Amino acid sequence: MEKKEKAPVLRFKDTNGKDYPAWEQRKLNEIASIYDGTHQTPRYTSNGIPFLSVENITTLQSSKFISEKDFLRDFPVYPKKGDVLLTRIGDVGTANVYERNQKVAFYVSLALLKLRETDPYFVNASFRSNSTRKEVWKRTLHIAFPKKINKNEIGKVNIQIPSLAEQRKIGIFFYSLDRLITLHQRKLEALKKLKRTLLQKMFPKKGHLKPELRFFGFTNDWEQRELNTAATFLNGRAFSQSELLSKGKYPVLRVGNFYTNDKWYFSDLVLPEKFYANKGDLLYTWSATFGPHIWEGDKVIYHYHIWKLLPGKDTDKAFLLSLLQRDRETLLQGSNGSTMIHITKQAMEAKKLFFPRSQKEQRQIGIFFKTIDKAITLHQRKLEIYKKLKKGLLQKMFRKLCKMLDSSQWPLET
Hints:
By secondary structure, this protein is of the alpha+beta class. Among the domains are: 26-161, Alpha-Beta Complex (Adenine-n6-DNA-methyltransferase TaqI, Chain A, domain 2); 223-355, Adenine-n6-DNA-methyltransferase TaqI, Chain A, domain 2 (Alpha-Beta Complex). It is built from ten helices and 19 strands. A four-stranded antiparallel beta sheet has the order 2-8-5-6. A four-stranded antiparallel beta sheet has the order 11-18-15-16, with helices on one face. A hairpin with a 1-residue loop joins strand 5 and strand 6 (91-97). The chain is elongated, with a radius of gyration of 27 Å.
């Protein structure tokens, strides 16, 4: 029989540079007292004691409150600083450490773990590891709607426990990494918000001929032009399913490849040059999800649901990209935020938008937003690197602790 491993691939050392003791397998109810929240629909008040539910697990903050009287009656046990909250209905198995010295109530969709001689940040990290997630998954009622895990089943979850000293090192390590990820996420969101604000201020509002915010030296009114006077719109190539290959000379760029779909088809077809997109081309997705993009990859054939825009000699490409991004924001505001808008080529070509009369002003605006886009891309890449690093470390620092299910049997962390 193969010997069961008692330690992960990657470990911290003690102060003498030696390994800590072997890890032990324990059930959650051996290291924690487990409670669930109220099963009754609360009577909300305008202020009072914050009331947490499953949707609050990321921040553990809520805009919903109950009265002090109801709290004292219904919550003899409630989260305190250092306790762990765990989602158990709908979203199952997401944990977070409560870090405030503030009374808080919670709904039945959350479980409260009051740990005994166990580091909460280690437990929080453990719930993100595949070994513990597997344990939660196999005790979840997947046939229920919404899916859930019963409180008693949470207590049966096996968790691998090192010494308290090693727990603390692992816990603070992942806590620090989470803080770093959160920091970059906030910087990214701040940059995106700044860009949205500047798109509103650096282009004329409805009924105005000048933007609110301009570069020094430009005072003239902007002029309204149809888009077909600023750029030529080229249709992509329509493909039958039989023409899409699993491998071939050219990738076929589809709308989904810009957003969520990383599956690619290919083609060996030899086509007129207008059907190819090269690095730096301005493209516009117009079916299902819409918006402008600068293509940054190698040569591809772009699909029928994408246009290629060839800016005229009087139009700066970077400015046109920003103008179309501004137009997209306007369209989203009129669609309650839905990105599922179908736009026709004829309507897009005839659309009237405002352009600076000066090409120099166009170029300055284009360069300005290009700089912001580069900063956004940089932070996105950093965020992806840190998330990938965290995922890999969770595997190496927890993965060898118990027999794993086949990856097709349960949802791995993404």
